[in-house]
Design goal:
The protein has 202 residues and is an all-alpha fold. It has helices at residues 4-38, 47-60, 66-77, 86-102, 107-120, 122-135, 140-152, 156-164, 172-188.
Length: 202
Amino acid sequence: MRNPGSRATGAVLAALSLYGAVYGVRAGRAQCLYCAARFAAGPEAAFDRTAAACERAYRLYPHQYAFSILAAERAYFDVPEAERTPTRLEAARRWCERGLAQNPHKRRLHLLKAYLLARENPAAGAAWWATYTDRRFWDPFNHSVMAELWAAAGEYRKARESLRWTEGTPYYKETRALIREAWRREAAGPPPRPGDQANSMR
């Protein structure tokens, strides 16, 4: 007579094997959807298609933050300011928040969050990025963005202080030009939106 304990153990192992197989299939399918969306060209690269693919991938495998990064960045960075409609901005916010919930350490998501906040309140965007930069102080890219955001908020002294931390790096000239452009535009009219032209090396 078989030991009941052995039968129970076998049932558990079989269930775990089935779960692992299903989980692997779902993760693999989600990765295929992501790759198809990321490397699409022409009409297939339209944001609606990208967002739909990322949504399907997320439902299959909600632990992969790359889906959220792709959809969030496509929603915001792939279009000029004139095409950043309320619907598009809301999509960027939703995917950005989802991504940060999945992985609160990704710089690309914090960068987008700062830009989105700065659209409504430049000081809030700068404050968000300042908190991130304080934890990762020695990366000159972070100071380049910090200078841009402070300039957008009209805090030119703080912008110049951040600029100092980019001296001797590839970011210095571009960052200095961004501060000067923000100053010029403030004198002429509304300042540029953070993220419009900034940090081409992001």
